[in-house]
Amino acid sequence: MSGFVAGAPSPSEPLRRFFQVARGAGLRVSAAEGIDAARAVDLVGFEDRTLLKDTLGLILAKTPEEKDLYDEAFELYFKRDEFAGKDEAEAEDHVEGGMPQRGPQMGGDGMGGAGGQSLGQLLESDDRAALAAEMEKAAREAGVENIRYFTQKNLYARRILNRMGLRALEREMEAMRQSGAPEYLSRAQVLEGKVEQLRDAVRDFVERSLLLYARGETEKFREELLKSARLSNLERRDLDRMRVLVRQMAKKLAARYAKTRRRRLRGQLDTRRTLRRNMGWGGIPFITVWKQKRIEKPRVMVLCDVSGSVAAMSGFLLMFIYALNEALSDIKSFAFAGSLIEVSDILEKEPVEQAISKIMQTIGYGSSNYGNSFADFEDGWMQFVNNKTTVIILGDGRGNRTDPRTDVIARLSQRCKRIIWLNPEYRSAWGTGDSDMYRYAPFCSLVTVCNTLRQLERVITDILEDAA
Amino acid sequence: MNDALPAHAPLESIEAVDQGLGAAGYIASRQISTAIYLAHHLQKPILVEGPAGVGKTELAKSVATWMQLPLIRMQCYEGLDESKALYEWKYGKQLLYTQILKDKINSVIGEADNLAVALNKLHDFGDIFFSHQFLEPRPLLRALEMPGGAVLLIDEIDKSDQEFEAFLLEILSDYQVTIPELGTVHASTPPIVLLTSNSTRDLGDALKRRCLHLHIGFPDEKLEARIIASRVPGIDGRLLKQLVSFVQQLRVLDLKKVPSVSETIDWARVMVLLHTSVLEVDLVRDTLNVLLKFEADIEVANKQIAGLTHKARQDAGVPA
Predict the structure, then answer these.
(1) Residues of chain A whose C-beta is under 8 A from some C-beta in B?
(2) How many domains does chain B have?
(3) Where are the beta strands (DSSP E) in B46-99?
(4) Which residue in A308, B82, B86, B300 is deepest, having the highest Cβ count within 10 Å?
């Protein structure tokens, strides 16, 4: 195969394009990594594909997930490249005088095909190899690697076709038809079929390029959308992606929280421990010990409404609690609708899906009775609440006109460090109908709207940081 | 680059790495050899990730044995700081010397008329107490100062604090450290650096960017068989096949902690000790605790032992 093994365009050209593909697939390829990769490739060369794959993988992919992405991108890109390379090599045999080779720097300026044969001749000679090479070249000139959205598919397909000289060919064909001579007519007809095939091929090609260059972008775009979409509006098909996002977020929160657990107070000498540390050399302070602030682990109790009115959301809330449960050690979780039960055990022992469906089956979907549920909480668990506990309540505060039992919440607020109420409803809906939100609000240290993943993340971050 | 490092001559090709590691008793996959080869030629550290017991630490040891370089190991833990990783002043020695030298002070500054002159005289002696003699090099500094190079193993970097990770960056990218009293210390021969991580936390991007990232997963059947054969010499070929097939099946089950290579090795040793040649259900049941470390896992596996054993025997071609 001709490719880029020796001499041919400097190795950084195909590599550079591969970086673009890798970025498209969602890998972060910084300039420094690009340089490293180029140096590594200089060492190992392009001949051995598995070796090349291993080499680039060592430098570009930094996590197991990225390894998978990388493998896929590598296969897609270099597979394609191999075919193209072969095609070009064959094309060279066919067309003496040098078909324009890969890369814009290798001549072949202006309209594609003008250097060797016209598009019509190529189509008629049925030279697939040369056609494929032409297509690649036209695509590169049209900048197909900049494609980002599926809506751009037609645009790029048209650009590529134009560069291959389709317009000229169409004019030719029109002229043939006009001439009326039977041989021309049949020729035009044959060509028409071929042009149709070419169109399909180009469309196919653009689609593959979209996959290659823009998958990462599209994914990222979707994830961004999901993060700020209302949880109650999410559809079933987004569930899987959402699950991944929730887990990521919980992991991030846990990492951040773990980091701030011990904070050194610079500038405050711990005299007692300094003296003790330096006892060995007569109390002369060679080693200084600074005061440290030990940060309390937040003791969190989460009460999650799983009644019918918030059913669409509670799935996600439970998912989040589940993730948080994995991340934090000291967390008690409860679910309630008509009454309240503790679900910490279920969340701990079962895998996420089973846990959620089990909880929903046990207690979910009923009509909610906040007063009753809070009373249950007071009977069973109020004794475990102390002045270090943060209580988070997730719910819309709609108790179906039952007694809201604000007295329980009042007692709770005296006992615990603080109560945080996250309400999925917009502020304007609070207090309307059977909503008791404003009756509970005075006892909470924070009441806030929370109906997207992003809001949820922000609130939880604040909780963890305040615990510091 | 090679000429300056005659000791590393065996690193001329990936095959050479493969053979060298093999001679040191480490059966490397192609990826591992490639990583070592690149690490040397690009002068970059390798960050090795993967589940516990797949031979991350062993890799560093084998590289050291093969290249006949000293292995300097630094175990990371929470609260590890510069004074334990890089250098420390020998306070005791400093103190002792000041006490002993107290009397000599007079002879040095004895004739000085006033304080300023005395101070100047003292200055001429320089910072004797903050010189190399009083420096206690810790693993990182030792690795840099080794004249012929070294293999530096920074074990379980994920257990250390983030501050420490940031502190490592200078060493990892430039092979130098700065000691305020002495200046910057460069490595005479850059050490081969391996960092291992069990991914208990995500490492910073800055660190990851500076390293080659090698992920060692569980080996496939063939490679695992080769590893066991090299680690448990004298094992019967048919038994080996059965063991490996059994463990490979076990890894597919939903377990809390799947057995890794080190456990397979242990198990193989047990089997050799017991003079086994064919896996029997009862024997497997009795020795399962070598492979699985959680009660719950053993329970899960116990239910399927008969099937797994049968399959393993079939794979190895043992007549039923």
Answers:
(1) 28, 30, 32-33, 36, 39-40, 43-44, 50-51, 54-55, 57-59, 61-64, 67, 251, 255, 258-259, 280-282, 284, 286-287
(2) 3
(3) 46-49, 71-75, 87-89
(4) B86
Inspect the interface and report whether the beta carbons of A62 and B213 lie closer than 8 Å: yes
Show me where the domains of chain A are located: 12-218, 261-294, 296-467
Contacts of residue B49, defined as CB under 8 A and 6 or more positions apart, other chains included, come to A64, B56, B196, B197, B198, B199, B213, B214, B215, B216
In a domain, B73, yes or no: yes
Question: What is the C-alpha separation between A400 and A433, in angstroms, rounded?
Answer: 9
> Which domain covers residue B113, as residue numbers?
87-135
Q: β-strand A299-305 against A389-394: which pairing, if any?
A: parallel
Strand B135-137 relative to strand B46-49: parallel, antiparallel, unpaired?
Answer: unpaired
Residue B265 has what pLDDT?
Answer: 92
The B-side interface with A (CB below 8 A) comprises: 14, 30-31, 34-35, 37-38, 41-42, 44, 46, 49, 89, 91-92, 94-95, 161-162, 201-202, 205, 208-209, 212-215
Of A146, A83, A135, A127, nearest to A108 by C-alpha is A135
Give the residue, B16 or A232, on which the prediction is more confident: B16
Greater pLDDT, B166 or A97: B166
Output the DSSP codes for A376-436.
HHHHHHGGG--TTEEEEEES--B-TTS---HHHHHHHHHHSSEEEEEESS-GGGTTSTTB-
Considering the domain architecture, whether residues B65 and B210 belong to the same structural domain is answered as yes
SS3 content of chain B, % helix, strand, coil (to 5): 55, 10, 30
CA gap B244, B255 in Å, rounded: 17
Domain A296-467: give its CATH architecture. 3-Layer(aba) Sandwich (3.40)
pLDDT beyond 60 at A103: no
**Domain stops at, among B159, B181, B215:** B215
- Rg of chain A over all Cα atoms, to the nearest angstrom: 33
- Domain identity same for B167 and B51: yes
Q: How many other C-beta atoms lie within 10 A of the C-beta of residue A70? A: 23
Q: Is A234 left (phi over 0), alpha (psi -120 to 50) or beta?
A: beta
Asked if B234 and B108 sit in the same domain, the reply is no
A40, A50, A255 ranked by CB distance to B42: nearest:
A40
Q: Which of B200, B215, B230 is the last residue of a domain?
A: B215
Residue in A32, A58, A63 nearest the CB of B34: A58
- Cβ neighbors of B71 (< 8 A, separation 6 or more) are B60, B61, B64, B150, B151, B153
Confidence of residue B208 (pLDDT cuts 50, 70, 90): confident
Two tokens, residue A73: 């991108």
Q: Verify that B75 and B145 share a domain, yes or no.
A: yes
Other beta carbons less than 10 A from residue A451's beta carbon: 20
Tell me the pLDDT tens digit for each residue of A394-418: 888 888 888 888 899 999 999 998 8
Q: Flag whether B47 is in a domain.
A: yes
Please state the pTM of the whole predicted model: 0.65
- Per the CB < 8 A criterion, the answer to whether B63 and B36 are in contact is yes
Give ipTM to 2 decimals.
0.79
Structure token pair of residue B246: 């059994």
Q: Are residues B250 and B287 in the same domain?
A: yes
Question: What is the maximal distance between C-alpha atoms in chain B?
Answer: 102
